[in-house]
Amino acid sequence: MEEDIKFIIITGLSGAGRTLALRVFEDHGYFCVDNLPPALIPKFAELCSQSIRRINKIALVIDIRGGGFFDHLFESLKTLKSMGYTYEILFLDASDEVLIKRYKESRRRHPLALDRRIIEGINLERKKLDPLKANSDVIIDTSHKTPAQLKEEIVRRFIETEKEPGLLINIVSFGFKLGIPLDADLVFDVRFLPNPFYVDELRPLSGNDPQVKDFVMKWPESQEFLDKLLDLIQFLIPYYIREGKSQLVIAIGCTGGRHRSVAVANELAELLKKQGHKVIIDHRDENDSRGEKSEP
Fold first, then answer.
1. Where does a domain end: 163, 187, 219?
2. Domain span at residue 109?
3. Which of 15, 120, 146, 224 has the most CB atoms around it within 10 Å of its CB?
4. 14 annotated ligand-binding residue
5. DSSP string for the chain
6. Are residues 270 and 224 located together in one domain of the fold?
7. Are residues 19 and 154 in the same domain?
């Protein structure tokens, strides 16, 4: 057996981007299989380890299309682990509204809604997938992501970390009006800071603009918050690493996700980079106009 064979299990809601995710892994040298019955995973691992062509990176899409076979997934993963193989579970999620829109645009039927409404199929699928989601290593909400953005995030989270092992810190700025990121490990609310939205010349800008950054960071409470936040993260990182965590998602939220959260996320990222940490940043809602129509 090749002990360094790595498995990525791609799963999640139908319509959330599993096919695109599989293509990304395929483009980066993974041996990919779509809709493999879970009971065959251990046998498939054996075949890969015995193949003449060395296969050490494998991505599998496992979902409810397998019907009753899907119920054996946890049992198969437990067997896989006992055989000495490592795996990570990537769970792709999206809001009901977005999933319904995607199905209507594609004119395809939801696999659990062949004789019922789409929303009923989505609700049933969520219920069946809840235990798997709770045990996933990475959860990506694709509701507001373009295909290019989803591809970029997968590359950052999986492909780049193959070259640079260690804890990857992903800082996400977001707007509470648009929902908390599903994959966040730590969530911090910066709505207590003075809001640039109410400064006419700053409202059209974002936290990436120097004028907004200077406004947000000039207040004593901003600096004190960053100091305390950095101290907390420094305290937590060694313990996350000790527990085997490879990725830490820190979400920084304000009302619309355009001004304060972006500025604070950028500042935090720079401070962590100076300490030698590998940091990537994602301003989820910076360009989403829904969050900035009205701010309290």
1. 163
2. 6-163
3. 15
4. yes
5. --TT-EEEEEEESTTSSHHHHHHHHHHTT-EEEES--GGGHHHHHHHHHH-SS---EEEEE--GGGGGGGGGHHHHHHHHHHTT-EEEEEEEE--HHHHHHHHHHHTPPPTT-SSS-HHHHHHHHHHHHHHHHHT-SEEEE-TT--HHHHHHHHIIIIIHHHHS-SPEEEEEEEEGGG---TT-SEEEE-TTSPPGGGSTTTTTS-TTSHHHHHHHHTSHHHHHHHHHHHHHHHHHHHHHHHTT--EEEEEEEESSSSSHHHHHHHHHHHHHHHTT-EEEEEETTTT-GGGSS---
6. yes
7. yes
Q: Is residue 1 a part of any domain in this protein?
A: no
**Does 16 appear as a known binding residue?**
yes
Residues 162-188, mean pLDDT to the nearest whole number: 86
**276 carries a ligand binding annotation:** no
Q: How confident is the model over 37-81, as pLDDT tens digits?
A: 888 899 998 888 877 666 788 999 988 775 555 667 888 999 988
153 with 134, same domain: the answer is yes
185 is in an annotated binding site: no
In a domain, 296, yes or no: no
Query: Binding residue per annotation — 64?
Result: yes
13 annotated to bind ligand: yes
Q: Is 66 annotated as a binding residue?
A: yes
The confidence score (pLDDT) of residue 103 equals 84
> Residue 189 above 60 pLDDT?
yes
CATH number for position 103: 3.40.50.300
Would the annotation count 63 as a binding residue?
yes
Residues 198 and 282 in one domain: yes
Domain count of the chain?
2
Is 291 a known ligand-binding residue?
A: no
Does 159 carry a binding-site annotation? no
In this structure, are 128 and 214 located in the same domain?
Answer: no
**8 annotated ligand-binding residue:** no
